[in-house]
């Protein structure tokens, strides 16, 4: 299994707005080969810190997704988000190979 986390810190007053964006996400990734799950995590001590947590069956399938037209489409939409403060936030991405369960 392969895990990709994208962490963003948003203005505290906009955290709920971002959460709602993800609640209404396009779900294009859900049909990608090897995609297992999506979760949006909110840090309990820092509510303005949100983590997009994706699980994949393999690094190879994640990379296929990350190079796909669907991936590009989603990220182009983010750049066009009306709230430019949110659109300009760059996530900190970490990737993990699951080595034990």
TrEMBL record:
Keywords: Monooxygenase, Oxidoreductase. It comes from the Bacteria. GO terms for molecular function: monooxygenase activity. It holds the Pfam family ABM. InterPro entries: ABM_dom, Dimeric_a/b-barrel, Heme-degrading_MO. Residues 2-90 form the ABM domain. This is Antibiotic biosynthesis monooxygenase. The lineage of its organism: Bacteria, Bacillati, Bacillota, Bacilli, Bacillales.
